[in-house]
Amino acid sequence: MIHSEKNRLEWNEESRLRELLMHHYGIQVREARKIKRILHLKTDNGDYVLKRSGFHGEQRWKLVQELAEYLQNRGGYQIPAPVLTHRGKLHFSGFQCRYVLLPWVNGKLRDWNRERCWPKVAQTLARFHSDSKGFLPSRSFLQHFSRRGGWRKNWEKAAREIQVFKMAVDMSGEISVMDRFWFKHLPYMEGMVETSLHYLEKAGGDQVVQETRKEGEVCHLNIHRNNVIWDSREEVHFIDWNRVALDVRSRDLSKLILYAYRQTGRPDMACHLLKWYQEVSPLEEEEYELIYAQLLFPSGMMRSLKRVYMDGKASPDLNEKDGWNSVDQEEKKYGLLREFPEQVEQLFQKKIRRIDWIQSQK
Q1: Which Pfam families did the record assign (predicted)?
Q2: Strands, DSSP E only, in 207-342?
């Protein structure tokens, strides 16, 4: 809820935002408008976005700042960098949480299906990956945000987390509705994690992942309709960089492919996206199997499981809805998993490994 009056601005139960923004940035807020999880501020010094700093906030936004500076120095694709406070900080503390201020990107959202936006999105992602080649962040970011060459380690960690959860439920004296829900779907998650690991190893393992780093190793990981702005020149701007990670581009591509499949219901969109992407930046042969390995991994279900039992901040109703959505999305992606290898072979003449039990699914 937002309350904005001449001398009062309240958002997220922060009753002194106007004063905090003046103190830290020297800007006078003239108008404020809530848009989903952000606040659009019109000030005496232009337009800005205010948002919560988030998990690992200071470290992640420092990474975004370094990436923005790197891209600016190269003169290529540009991303919005956090606005520094008077003291040179990337964020400031309110009474409820920490916040980060970002430049407002002028433009509009579009209906990607009606306006045929998918080609431009894929090409812009390719441009970003290409322009961010060679980015070397501070070493302090590697612990939290780097997955480069460490897929196996992280997927094995996911398998252990599933086992820990099963043991916790078995030992619990009182089993909740959510416990039963997840316990029912854990065998599927275990199977898909194991399948992902086996496929990755057959594709060459983390060594192959490492070898593809030269093609780009920074990922946005959250590209969807509400995070893409189209400006007056028809240029595409990716916003909301709070999930940025240091990883190879095949992971970013798999996320975009899954999103496209969920939005269109068309398995062939995967190869269309890869075709448009390669009009800017060609893929190496081994990257097709890395993309498929990422498609196999049940990342949505793992993320939902962690939200419930590790974060524990959402309400039970939201947790249940999130859980059902993640399960539904996993079940629906069988069509994509079944058809992707054949379509890659037909369109790109690249033969990738198939998984027999997935090919037999109807």
Answers
A1: APH (PF01636)
A2: 228-230, 236-238
